[in-house]
């Protein structure tokens, strides 16, 4: 597999052999291979302390499971080096807005403001859908020899052993539980690794090209924020949006993804058109209910003391509220200023 032509202009470190890659990380070749775990050496280890990840299962509203896979300190440091010195030098598709410097949920939702119809679709099991071989192929396309690319891919992917699921706090249907164990047992991008969002964006480049082209042909706009897809357009697009969504699902299937049909929404002007928690009907805005709840919390902090409102026992409740206010300010400055004035009146 030859590197793509554009890779010649990307400022990524030149690494031509396994020994050079090990030296780049200040490791021996043996240590590098242990962290990359291409031969699945962890399967033979009974001591979970030797695993490279911490695990935290989360139950979805649908009843399924999502597993947060947080790399341990040494591997996390290596992944951050890959992110900062390799991945940050590579451009992403203009439609991708999640985990991209200079882009945000605002830039994701803003192109859809004021349109006749907004179509929202969701990719099911987004990060686990990226197989390790796909990540290794990506590293080959940016110019690394196959042995180096395979090890880089191994450092950025993970396979969860069945015994790692023996943890407290899992409340899921047995069938969904077994389905999740099978899904995460295959080498995949771990949700929780610092390299995963960038790699997911790069490996979705062809998908973004196809969906952006499909949207243009239908007179629509397309943006993506991780696994959230958004399309919008005028009256002509509104008349064909149902058939359009079928075409999107077909492209996703051809690209190795599945649509979470329970989250598909066709939103016309008569309803609140929401993308990633923002309202896009006439202007980009915060949902009224969320604004009113935050305003009430701040008002009660002034009247009854902030301790009375810290029901979730946040260790840094002041910072928690300040972050919420900053988010509102970034979307709607006038509303944010009203909240900020209330915040300044709280006695801490």
Describe this structure in words.
With 348 residues, the protein is an alpha+beta fold. Strands 3, 4, 5, 6 and 7 form a 5-stranded antiparallel sheet that branches. The chain has a two-stranded antiparallel ribbon with strand order 1-2. The chain is 43% helix and 12% strand. The protein has helices at 18-24, 29-36, 73-85, 105-109, 132-141, 146-156, 174-185, 196-203, 205-217, 235-254, 288-304, 317-331, 333-344; strands at 53-59, 65-71, 117-124, 220-225, 228-233, 258-259, 265-267, 274-275, 278-279. A hairpin with a 5-residue loop joins strand 1 (53-59) and strand 2.
Instruction: Give the averaged pLDDT, no decimals.
Output: 93
What pattern of helices and strands is seen along the backbone? HHEEHHEHHHHHEEHEEEEHHH
Would you report the number of β strands?
9
> In percent, how helical is the residue content?
40-55%
How far is it from the N-terminal to the C-terminal residue, by CA? 60 Å
Q: Largest beta sheet, briefly?
A: 5 strands, antiparallel
If helices are DSSP runs of H or I spanning 4 or more residues, what is the number of helices? 13
The coarse silhouette is globular
